[in-house]
């Protein structure tokens, strides 16, 4: 790992960075964005910076301006000449009375991510414990902010792996499909893309890009309530995220499902130049 500070300096990931009383470390009070870099170019960087600022505002603190973040981004990119990598922009509330702690990290794309793009993922359906409408009525739950508080999501992934699966799709207590711990759910029906409405889930940047590209290519698109039965009936089910891009779902609750071959179509849409 390489760490880029917002003054343009580069540090090793092994060097200490956070104070012990940093609110990000003590309480998970912070926000982050994860960005794929391909050919030296970060994908959708302006959109990620905008969502980072929005998430910080929802936690009632203000991070640095975009120009400062770009110093850190360029510092990391300069330390990784060529090749794909993962950028992570992190902003914590910082210690009490101090400004936010902000930095950028760069790491190679994990082999598991590359594998899942090609081979797909086996998923379990897990109870989210609330419905999307519950989250909309309780903004303090911060479901539409990308915060550092990922303990529940990581616990869900560990549970899936203990059961022989790769990932999870959360289902609300009203029976509606919501999202995966680190991805958005997308369903393909012929030449129609469907993804769940945004109540209680994070607005995925890569999904927005995919939907716009699909519309440009003549596909129909919709934000629509989905159920587990809709997943079973779909021509393809995919987990879409910034680094993994498109991972086909190859089984749900140990039941194999078809459609993985359509992942190539979605990847082509993501890579198509905008009209």
Structural description of this entry:
With 275 residues, the chain is α+β, with helices and mostly antiparallel strands. It folds into 2 domains: 108 residues, D-amino Acid Aminotransferase, Chain A, domain 1, CATH 3.30.470; 159 residues, D-amino Acid Aminotransferase, Chain A, domain 2 (Alpha-Beta Barrel). Strand 9 and strand 10 form a beta hairpin. The radius of gyration is 19 Å and the shape is globular. The model has no long low-confidence stretch (mean pLDDT 94).
From the coordinates shown, what is the CATH architecture of the largest domain? Alpha-Beta Barrel
Radius of gyration, taken over Cα atoms and rounded to an integer in Å: 19 Å
Stretches where pLDDT is under 50 for at least 5 consecutive residues are: none
E-strand count: 14
CATH topology of the largest domain: D-amino Acid Aminotransferase, Chain A, domain 2
> CATH homologous superfamily name of the largest domain?
D-amino Acid Aminotransferase, subunit A, domain 2
- Give the % helix: 25-40%
Biggest sheet statistics:
8 strands, mixed
Instruction: Count up the domains.
Output: 2
How much strand content do the residues show? 25-35%
Total helical segments? 9
Q: Choose one word for the global shape.
A: globular
């Amino acid at each position: 790992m390489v760490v880029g500070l917002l003054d343009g300096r580069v540090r090793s990931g092994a060097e200490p960075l956070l104070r012990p009383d940093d609110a990000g470390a003590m309480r998970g009070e912070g926000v982050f964005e994860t960005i794929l870099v391909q050919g030296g170019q970060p994908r959708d960087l302006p959109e990620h910076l905008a969502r980072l600022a929005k998430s910080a505002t929802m936690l009632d603190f203000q991070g640095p301006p975009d120009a400062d973040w770009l110093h850190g981004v360029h510092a990391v990119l300069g330390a990784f000449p060529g090749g794909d990598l993962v950028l992570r922009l992190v902003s914590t509330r910082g210690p009490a009375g101090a400004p936010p702690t902000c930095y950028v990290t760069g790491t190679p794309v994990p082999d598991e991510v590359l594998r899942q793009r090609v081979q797909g993922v086996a998923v379990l359906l897990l109870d989210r414990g609330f419905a999307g409408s519950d989250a909309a009525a309780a903004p303090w739950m911060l479901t539409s902010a990308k915060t550092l508080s990922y303990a529940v999501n990581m616990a869900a992934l560990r549970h899936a792996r203990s059961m022989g699966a790769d990932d999870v799709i959360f289902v609300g207590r009203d029976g509606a499909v919501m999202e995966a711990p680190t991805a958005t759910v997308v369903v393909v029906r012929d030449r129609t893309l469907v993804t769940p409405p945004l109540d209680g889930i994070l607005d995925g940047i890569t999904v927005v890009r995919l939907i716009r590209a699909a519309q440009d290519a003549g596909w129909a698109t919709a934000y629509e309530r989905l159920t587990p039965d809709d997943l079973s009936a779909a021509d393809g089910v995919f987990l879409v995220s910034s680094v993994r891009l498109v991972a086909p779902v190859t089984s749900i609750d140990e039941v194999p499902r078809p459609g993985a071959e359509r992942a190539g179509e979605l990847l082509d849409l993501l890579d198509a130049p905008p009209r």
